[in-house]
Structures are given as structure tokens and as C-alpha cells.
Amino acid sequence: MTTRPTTPTTPAAPAAPAKWLTGFAMFAGVLMMVGGVWGVLAGLSAILHDEVYLSTPQYLYSFDLTSWGWVHLILGALVAVAGVGVLQGVTWARVVGVVVAALSMFANFAFIPYFPIWSILLILVDAIVIWALITYQREPRTE
């Protein structure tokens, strides 16, 4: 009976994150700032002059357009602030960014009858942001 000599095994080094994932998260931060400004502008236009939007009286989610304006204004500001945090590399900003982008998606889905192209564009931006923030991997520190 022969015994094989054992060799010490070293744990495999963790795979380095792909550079494009990190860059894509930074792109998401910029998209969040742009999408947030768009939301703020949509909210302000609904608050200040709600005749800009088409009125749909038989819509299931029909709220007063001024109410929709406040929803978009607040969500847009939150998305923009979280975007600034993502650009600074703060962990809480990525978590908050995913949450407020998801809320923005739902708000824009309900807002489709009032302004369809704008809402669909913001839904697409929010989906890209969520995907980028979820797939983000921090680069390992080299010291």
C-alpha cells in the first residue's frame, strides 16, 4: 500500500472583477443623475402647468396631475442624489439607487397614459441603472 504525498493547496485567488462592470456602475450613476433631472423637470411641469399633459379620465391609476408632479419631483430628486452617491462609490447609494430606480419604474409605468414616450424612456433608463448597480463589483485594493 503506497501513500501519495500530499501537496499543500493554495486557495484560488478570487477572480478580478471585469473593468467594464465597474465602469458600467459609474455610467449608471451618470444615468441616475440625468434621469433624476428628467423626473424633476417632468414633476415641475406637472405642478406648475399641468395642461402640458394629456388628461385621461378613464385611466385606472388616475390621480390629479399635480399629485403626479409631486411624485415625479420627489423621486427624481432622490434618484439624482443617489446617482451622486454612486459616482462617489458609496455602498448605501447603490442600495438606495436600486430602490428608488424601481420606484421610479413603477411611477413611470403608471404615468404612461399621460406621457407615453417620456415614461417608456425613463423606464428603460431605470432598468439599465438597476442592472448596472446589481452587477457592480468593487475593484480589489492594491496597496
From TrEMBL:
Domain DUF7144: 25-138
Keywords, in A-Z order: Membrane, Transmembrane, Transmembrane helix
Upper classification of the organism: Bacteria, Bacillati, Actinomycetota, Actinomycetes, Pseudonocardiales
A Pfam family annotated for this UniProt entry: DUF7144
First and last residue of the signal peptide: none
Protein name: DUF7144 domain-containing protein
Membrane spanning stretches: 21-48, 68-87, 92-111, 117-136
